[in-house]
Amino acid sequence: MIIINQFIASYNYFIIIFLMIAGLYIVVARGNMIKKLIGLSVFQTSVYLLYISPGKIIGGTAPIINDNYTLYSNPLPHVLILTAIVVGIATLALGLSLTIRINEEFNTIEEDEIFNKEEL
Amino acid sequence: MQFEHLPATQILIPLIGAVFILASRKNIVIWATVSLLTLLTFINSILLYKQVSASGIISYAMGGWEPPIGIEYRIDSVNSILIVLVSFMALLVALYARKSIEVEIVAEKRPVFYAMYLLCLTGLLGILATGDAFNAFVFLEISSLSTYVMIAMGKDKRSLIASYQYLIMGTIGATFYVIGIGLIFIMTGSLNLNDISEQINNVSTIRPILASLAFITVGISLKLALFPLHSWLPNAYTYAPSVATAFLASTATKVAVYLLIRYFFDVYGYNIVFEDYWLSMLLIILSIAAMIGASLVAIFQNNIKKMFAYSSIAQMGYITLGVAIANHSGLVGSLVHIINHALIKGTIFMAIGCFVMKLNSTTIEDFAGIGKKMPLTMTAFTIASLSLIGIPGTVGFISKWYIITGAIEKGWWWLVISIALSSLLALVYVGRIIEIAWFQEPKIKENTIRLSHEMIGVTLIASITTLYFGLNTELTVDLAKIAADSLLSGISK
Amino acid sequence: MIEISLLFLPIVIPFIASIIIKALGGNKKLRELTIIVAPLITLLSVIKLYSLDYNIKLVLFEIMPNLEIAFSIEPLGLLFATIISVLWIIASLYSIGYMNAHKEPRQDNFFFFFTIAITIAIASSLADNLFTLFIFYELLTISTYPLVTHKADAESKKSGRIYLTILLGSSLLFFLPALIYTYYLTNDLTFTSGGIFTDAYANGDIGNLGIGLLLALFIFGVAKAAIMPLHSWLPAAMVAPTPVSALLHAVAVVKVGVFTIIKIIIYIFGTDLLFKTGGSEWLIYLSGFTIITASIIALKQDNLKRLLAYSTISQLSYIVIGVAMINPNAIVGSILHLTAHATSKITLFFAAGIIYTSTGFTRISQMYGIGHKMKLTMICFTVGALSMIGIPMFGGFVSKWYIVSGALSVSNWFVISVIIISTLLNTAYFIPIIYKSFSQSSSSVSYKKVPNSMLLATIASACLTIIIFLFPEFFIEVAKNVI
Fold this sequence. Notes:
The complex is a heterotrimer of chains A (about 120), B (about 500) and C (about 475). Chain A is mainly α and about 120 residues long. Chain A has helices at about 1-10, 10-30, 35-55, 75-105, 110-115. Chain A has a single domain (about 1-115), classed as Helix Hairpins, CATH 1.10.287.3510. The interface of B and C includes residues 389, 404 and 477 of B.
């Protein structure tokens, strides 16, 4: 029972871990360059959750100073993750445009096929 | 104190410059502007260093928000020398760049390349200057993203693949790093490195902290190409434009090592990281694997850029080895080797850039007799190679001396032997090139492109610096000793 | 201040000369003038050093605390500097003749590196500490590499590779760690009479075994002394032009090797300490083994220069065995042999070079009857050979005498029997050459005229060999000052 209770109490972390591993697995296991980037995004998203979920306090409100409320959530994680999302989008955009260029040059975006053609 | 904003201007000069140079299309104008900007950055870094050595640690509150809430820029004896080093290399490579970029990059992409160059510099300087864990991540990504773009601009179409591979690996590394910070943040509620180091010993349970240590170590190790996380590096260095290779090889991995040193010795502290031997042993084994394995691979390369890319992996092994030995001499050795390796790899890749421009080839056999045709450049290359081996009279000798002393102090003789063995392997692959270049008759005809004077001049200056620092150790060893003292002051805590 | 600059002169003069040679480029007349004049001035500046005080010291750079590139004078170093500069004069004469007779290409390059190598050899003889000596030791390897590969054909490149790998490799693998460990233990590397290990040994930081192991690291690190099994670079280096083999591989390079070993044993470890710990005993057996083995290999050689190379390997170990015995007489013998071997071996190489220039012969089996036409050359060769064997009237006798008497006084029968056997072997490989050259000529050989300067140089060095026998007091005096 204790184990189950603990599990339920920190279920958010298990979701994060699941997403993390799933994302990494896709990056490693897939040869398609688009799919790799999708995996990378999933992996990064799990980190967003890692920051945001402990920042939420149940019953807390947004940190606006008002006499009616005494319990606030920490705003810092959200701000940080906003930055991280921007970084993630930039990475994804660059990755996708690289994939487009690769498709133009090699006529494929499968890593195996490229490695068969070219000696790296 | 009329220069109180120096830590901010250090980052802002290249950042703002990167935006403004996109306004011009003329290569020569952009090049002059970039050179001027990097010169300003370099001067700024020297002023900053002077300030630190005169009045101790500078804590600069970005935007007026006081730490630990606001972002703090913290300049001390460790990062001030590295800021000078990175700015100096940026200046040298920028001066070198003009002709090489004209030859290797098509006209419409040149302004973007220069902009990326400055952005990358911004990111690297930011990582060095900042005292905030998350801010360091942002700068890490700024430098990485601009690096991916620079690599993708290489002439060879394989540069796209190299860039893509690096993007995947680099992003995984950076994300690991963020995960580590997240765990620290959850446990301590702080992102300020200095603040974390004070709170880290008061946490309720040490487990998440150790997990964060593991994540951060792996994340940064990917960035610094620690064996076996190095697979992105050879292709990236090989297919990137010469200018990008010279700049990256001399700065990017070094900055990552700095971050690792900062976390090991300042944030976590010696006690957490090195109390149990497992981490230091693991690092030592990986470093030796890099020093010997990568050197062996380098011997069998036919592409000169790839050979020295593998050599870089081996040399990074020396640096992480000094960190893992974790005593005063070892750290001094590491810090000096960071300086040394930045200078020699900068020289070597700039020299290779000159050769490649003349020969249109990176195959080692084609370098036959190049010493007779380009004696000055080859001399610079040879001097840097000697420093790579660690011949006395060069900086490479000094840094090896300290790393070996560190190993002897610990009584690890097998380490001493591995270091010596790895130097021997360096002798083999470097010797091969020197022999071909100086003692064989030329095989292929070089093209008619004329090298610019500044290319040769800058390469020579960089190589002479390695000789100078080999004899005058005031600027290297003495500073590294002060830095190592401050890093190790936490042991007694 | 003036005295300090005097100390610097013997290093600066050859260095300037080398730059002049490089700057003159193709101007042959002026170049040859420089090549002749520079050694003379250098010798004068070395002689001037004898009047200086032993205490003065010139610090160039302080690299780390107590670790500096510095020069000072000391009897052994001074003697070595004198030998180098005297033989340099003779070798300069010889090489001008040789290079012209063979119409060698890239002569300016050749003489440039040649002079640089001399500069470095002299600098190492004046080194104030082991660190400085180490630096010049390494630089000497690098600067002589272009000389070994001067021919630039496949064979010389292969030899160059062996040369560089063994010499640089051994010093990086053994010498450098030993150096750093010594510095770590003693925080000092200055050559001090009585050694620098006294405190460390008294404190128990290093034991008897440690001393022996450290000495082994040093000995194997100094591969220039060609102690087996790290000797194979020397025969390989014989592809170089003869003047290079003569001066560098009979005098400068190998002698810097044994010089380093003598310095390490006497001034770093100290004879007392080695005597007490017995740390150098194994070295006696190893060098004894080298003496015999190298002589046996020499017996089987047909190529004259290779034979001389193996003879050098065996003779170098004489010097080492002398110091390893830690006996005053034997050490005097070693230091004498440093000189005697230098003059006799250079004579032999010069003679071999003349034979090659005149007839094109490199193999002993071709040399039947050449003595009739080349009387002077073969007489000089005989002088050198007899000195190597250790016949009275020649320098080699005096040094052997001292080494043997040292061995007798400690009743070391191993050393005595090694010397007796090796003397027999020396006789067995030198005498047939002399015999063959004076026997009947088998076929008609065309003799080319050899430049007079070559002959003159050979005769001069042969005379030096005899002078050492006649007036050994000076050398003995120096050697006694060392101990």
